[in-house]
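#lab-general

N.A. 3:47 PM
ok so I finally got the sequence cleaned up, no stray characters, all 221 residues accounted for. can someone with queue access submit it? mine expired

B.Y. 3:52 PM
send it over

N.A. 3:53 PM
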Amino acid sequence: MTENAASNEAARSPGMTSHRRTPPAGSHSGPEGNERLTAITGAVLLVLFAAEGVTILSLRSLLYWHYFIGLLLIGPVCVKIGSTFYRFIRYYTGDREYARKGPPAPLLRVLGPFVILTSVGVLSTGVALGFEKGTSYHGIPLLFMHKASFVLWLGVMTIHVLAYIWRLPGLIGADLRSSRAYGAAVAVGGRGLRWSITAVGLAAGIAIAMAAAHLSASWQR
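B.Y. 4:20 PM
back already:
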């Protein structure tokens, strides 16, 4: 058999070239990649929220860590909001793939803006308290606004988490598998970018926390 004939035979024999097969034509990021980025960031936030909740149990002794973790949350929260807005924009500007993916359930679509607003409210008032202890806005104490924002955030976030948490293991697990393991599911490109964005958000949060966590000292005087 000549060299050319052997090459042609190998090309016709899937079993002989399985180790060299390329990703499916549908291998790309798109809405599936966006969904996985949101899931990865959501998992990071769940861990940080749990840690922040522990500090609330003993604010007097854990106030520094309450500030540190609260400030650290800023980075991942920005990534999460960014990925959510990206999906929103692509869907409502008529992107074909995002339109095919479809919007979230009606309740979650209504709840989404409140999740974002209350998250921003809790974080912003918490940061402001480090600079302006005892300040009031329009007669409302800043500390009260922080506590009220937290209560509202806890309510909407509970519904949000219960709606999505069951999907996190599957989405994150699929993203951690080798990109060569093609099965029935279509491979989703951009895995490195997703994890890099998550790492950058986390690193930014750590930098903010290290730079500003000392503000907690104003409450210990």
